[in-house]
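User: Can you help me understand a structure? I only have the sequence.
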Amino acid sequence: MNVELVAQMFKNYQSNVLFHLEATENLKDPS
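Assistant: Let's start by predicting it. Here is the structure, written out as tokens:
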């Protein structure tokens, strides 16, 4: 498997997880 492709997928996955966590935190505690 292509290492660069895996790294890119991992980066995208990490960004999506961080964005989702921030979004759910904002929904739970609107400030």
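Now, to help you interpret it: The helical segments are 3-28. DSSP finds one helix and no strands in the chain. Let me know which part you'd like to focus on.
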